[in-house]
Amino acid sequence: MSERSTDGSAPVTVIHLVRAVYGLEQFKVFVDSFRSTAPGTDYELVLAMKGFASSVDASSYLTLCKGIDAETVLLPDEGFDLDVYFELARRLQRDRYCFLNSFSQILAPNWLANLDSALQAPNVGLVGATGSWASPKSWTLHRLRLPTPYRHIFPDRRHALDVLRTIRSEQTGQASPSLMRRSPKVTSRVRGIFEQIMYKESFPAPHIRTNAFMIRGIELSQMHFNRIRNKADTYRIEHGRRSLTKQVSALGLKTLVVDRFGTTYEPEQWPSSNTYAHRNQEGLMVSDNQTTLYQDGDRARRSVLGRMAWGIEPEMDPSPRGCRT
Predict the structure, then answer these.
(1) Are 47 and 18 in contact (CB under 8 A)?
(2) Does 102 share its domain with 211?
(3) Which of 93, 95, 227, 317 has the most beta carbons within 10 angstroms of its beta carbon?
(4) What is the chain's mean pLDDT, rounded?
């Protein structure tokens, strides 16, 4: 639906990343959720088809979209999610963007209206369906047995390591190596550790997670990022010292998490949103593979993921609460 909104403003441009490598069933999850949950406001949908050589290759995917008005853009399977988002924003030059990654599943009606309403509030520059305080820098220091807030959050360091290595093995299908195991890739491992420590924030490091977020084109055009060369560079954009969240803050604008009821939360309130790695994620509006990892996890897994994100057990009541918009 690409008409003008009823209030005269431009519709929201929703960009969903579709990766061929994840297969048709993953895309079907998104399409079914998109079809069954009214966005609550006008939009234009752009499908960023990554890894499809031609429209013929994408035909089975496009068949799933019958009845959904969407523009498709075919892209080579190069770079990373954020590369795609920023490149399409440069091409399209739209007013407002909602970016949804390949694992996004919409869970609540009026999801887009909730995000849009929050973004258009005074002095707001970035909103998302989830946020986190997690710090890869602090976790790396803890793994190295150096001082860090995670030392008190994870007094049983070995247990937390075992849980995270199990998760990693499940995701990759390979055993997760120890931190400094000797291998031909030891140099790259040391470089990775250096980058985690030098370019990331210590816990708590509030940042909007980039699985489902919304930003205006004018603010996005003012963001300055180094060239994205590897996955570590994408993590810098999400939770580094010059992350999206940090740069929006430098513009004098607020960053908010929005739950499924339209309630907004400032960074110190994010655990209370119950949208990511806390309680049963009752406020979650758009899920992804990481929220599912927590939702389907046993008590031990939930405990580690919750404490990694917020520094507290996921069943504890974090105050204060957010404010209804």
Answers:
(1) yes
(2) yes
(3) 95
(4) 87
Residue 188 DSSP class? H
Domain that holds residue 143: 136-199
pLDDT band, very low/low/confident/very high, at 315 (cuts 50, 70, 90) = confident
What six digits make up the tokens of 51? 């890894």
- For 37-75, write each residue's pLDDT tens digit: 999 999 999 999 999 989 899 999 999 999 999 999 999
Residue length of the chain:
325
For residue 315, tell me if it sits in a domain: no
Q: Is the backbone peptide bond immediately before 122 cis, with ω within 30 degrees of 0?
A: no
- Residue matched to tokens 């209370």: 272
Evaluate whether 108 touches 260 at the Cβ level (below 8 Å): yes
**41 and 27 inside one domain:** yes
Q: Are residues 171 and 75 in the same domain?
A: no
Together in a domain, 47 and 192: no
pLDDT digits (tens, 9 = 90+) for 262-282: 999 999 999 999 999 999 999
Going 178 to 181 to 187 to 188, the CA torsion angle's sign is negative
Return d(Cα 203, Cα 136) in angstroms, integer.
8
Buried b (16+ CB within 10 A) or exposed e, 66-93: eeeeeebbebeeeebbbbbbbebbeebe
Same domain, 279 and 217: yes
- Is residue 306 included in any domain, yes or no? no
The domain tally of the chain equals 2
Asked if residue 241 lies in contact with residue 247, where contact means CB atoms within 8 angstroms, the answer is: no
101 and 19 assigned to the same domain: yes
Select from 252, 166, 129, 149 the least CA-distant residue to 201. 149
Residues 99 and 245 in one domain: yes
The arithmetic mean of pLDDT across residues 229-247, rounded, is 75
286, β-bridge pairs: 106
- In the numeric block, which tokens belong to residue 134? 């997690």
Residue 219 phi/psi, 5-degree rounding, is -75, -40
Contact in structure between 134 and 308 (CB atoms under 8 Å): yes
Confidence band, pLDDT 50/70/90 cuts, at residue 232: low
Q: How many CB atoms lie within 10 A of CB 116?
A: 24
- Give the residue from 127, 150, 126 showing the smallest Cα distance to 137: 150
